[in-house]
Write a structure and sequence with these properties.
Anti-sigma-factor_SerPK, ATPase, transferase, 190 residues, protein serine/threonine kinase activity
Amino acid sequence: MSTTRPYPPGDRGPEPSGASGASQGGTPMTGEPTGGEHGTGEPGTGVAAPAASTGRQVRTLSFDGVSGVVPLARDFTRQALYAWGWLPAASADQRAAAEDVLLVVSELVTNACLHADGPEELHISCDRKVIRLEVTDRGSGQPAPRTPHRAGRPGGHGMFIVQRLCLDWGVVRTPGVTGKTVWAELGAPA
């Protein structure tokens, strides 16, 4: 699993500009709000934005000035999974896939709380095959699974869980900017 590639190998390449909530032309897209006060830009609000012509759905949640960020992130992600048809699950495999997404979101946001002074933003994008979770924080550390992994000991399991459940994961840093974005991708349910 990668911890340095900004995107997974294959023909997908870098995220299209639509994945950031902007259309291919660079103009901000609008969408239905999914939390807070109807997407008014207040902390803890989330805005949905369908990406232009890629079939990718995008949601972003800002954590600016809010507490209880882990349950907030899980609830926000659960709402997205319902909106995108992952929930309610029609089979045990679909339920397991949705639960894996919620667990990975919890682990990424918890790691940002414990090791990076808290998360700034959760960005979720989904196409027909892959859901991508991105947690942005101001931390300078490099997340990595602890080695050796000690299953019987408390703590230190977060990135091991992420590595085991995800197709791929990594870290993106912008030169000259404090912080990083930790991303993880999971396969859509069959």
